[in-house]
Task: inverse folding
């Protein structure tokens, strides 16, 4: 981790109701292991996706969600993880005076994409993303949808022009993945690259050593 006060390294992660919550879990795991403090917000639809895709019940209370998330990722660092309700307007990332170093929406629905692109700020996820844009801080949106219509594409252009990084969950296969975990790591590695965070999830292109 760069030599900055821990709070200055805090990263916000928002999980919305798109397929692919495995990406968010792996990102949380890697960042906690690297001692990055995290804010996490989980939408109501995302809770359904956890149940559908992983048979995981995270519950509705932030403290319960925190305990179950830590158990899921296998990292015992509760002091680094803060969970906020999607309607918690008192959360620090709702204000530019106490925002995070960066924010990642992973996975992101096209609904979340649209809400952020139009500045709706109807919940904490949307407001926190709006704050990142207005404060000119990194906002990474990992869109999980296909095919895309003209509205989605226009919203991606709007957000890109506003300073966000739009990253469709579009893993490559040149690293010859041997498992679903390898495919997940490909996308998480790309997210970490955009956050300028070192990792060893896979080798850089052109690295002659064996791909991990």
Result:
């Amino acid at each position: 981790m760069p030599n900055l006060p821990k709070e200055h390294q805090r990263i916000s992660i928002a999980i919305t109701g798109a397929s692919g919550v495995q990406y968010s879990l792996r990102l949380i795991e890697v960042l906690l292991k690297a001692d990055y403090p995290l804010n996490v917000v989980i939408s109501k639809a995302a809770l359904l996706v956890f149940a559908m895709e992983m048979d995981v019940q995270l519950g509705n209370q932030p403290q319960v969600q925190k305990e179950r998330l830590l158990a899921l990722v296998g990292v015992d660092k509760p002091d680094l993880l803060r969970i906020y309700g999607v309607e918690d307007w008192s959360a620090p990332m709702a204000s530019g005076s106490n925002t995070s170093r960066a924010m990642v929406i992973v996975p992101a629905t096209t609904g979340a994409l649209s809400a952020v692109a139009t500045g709706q700020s109807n919940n904490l996820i949307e407001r926190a993303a709006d704050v990142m844009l207005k404060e000119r801080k990194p906002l990474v949106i990992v869109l999980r949808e296909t095919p895309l219509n003209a509205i989605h594409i226009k919203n991606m252009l709007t957000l890109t022009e506003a300073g966000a990084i739009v990253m469709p969950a579009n893993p490559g296969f040149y690293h010859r993945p041997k498992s679903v975990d390898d495919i997940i790591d490909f996308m998480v590695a790309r997210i970490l690259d955009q956050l300028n965070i070192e990792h060893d999830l896979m080798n850089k292109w052109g690295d002659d050593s064996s791909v991990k």
